[in-house]
Write a structure and sequence with these properties.
By secondary structure, the chain is mainly α. The chain has seven helices and five strands, in the order αβαββαβαααβα. The protein has a three-stranded antiparallel beta sheet. Strands 1-4 form a two-stranded antiparallel ribbon. A hairpin with a 2-residue loop joins strand 2 and strand 3. The longest helix is centred in the first third of the chain and has 19 residues.
Length: 144
């Protein structure tokens, strides 16, 4: 199975330089729609319901302190770990979300049930490291 770094590197190969906010949201949507379409995760890492939307902590640890990144940011990301179908799924996500600005992606994830449910009654700007379960993600996007 691929990991989040493999998927992120593939995204960066396709998009070129993007903000770390946008990379996080595109990885989230790649995971979400892969779960919806196949019932299986694209990668094993989880997303947490942070105040600025879903964040994958291992990916965040890599880009912490950076505003934007390029493909070279993840030299150990192995795009060959992704199957042709997984690459097609990511390409479809990029077609749907790739032209959106980071703040638009943030607003969209904030309006969707998986992020809101994981945060519970917390204020939108309150700290949260609650995991957004893969089951909740798959169920929500699978029903759209």
């Amino acid at each position: 199975m691929a990991n989040v770094f493999d998927a992120a590197r593939y995204i960066l190969l396709k998009t070129g330089e993007i903000s770390t906010w946008k990379l996080q949201k595109l990885c989230y949507y790649a995971q979400a729609w892969t779960l919806a379409w196949t019932g299986k995760p694209l990668f094993p890492e989880d997303f947490e319901a942070w105040r600025n939307g879903p964040v994958c902590r291992p990916l965040f640890a890599r880009h912490k302190g950076m505003y934007s990144v390029t493909e070279d940011f993840l030299p150990d990301g192995n795009i060959d770990a992704l199957t042709a179908d997984e690459k097609d799924s990511i390409d479809t996500v990029l077609s749907a979300y790739g032209d959106m600005e980071p703040y638009q992606l943030r607003a969209q994830t904030h309006a969707e049930t998986p992020w809101k449910a994981a945060r519970g009654s917390r204020d939108e700007m309150a700290f949260s490291d609650s995991v957004i379960s893969k089951e909740a993600i798959g169920a929500y996007y699978g029903a759209l």
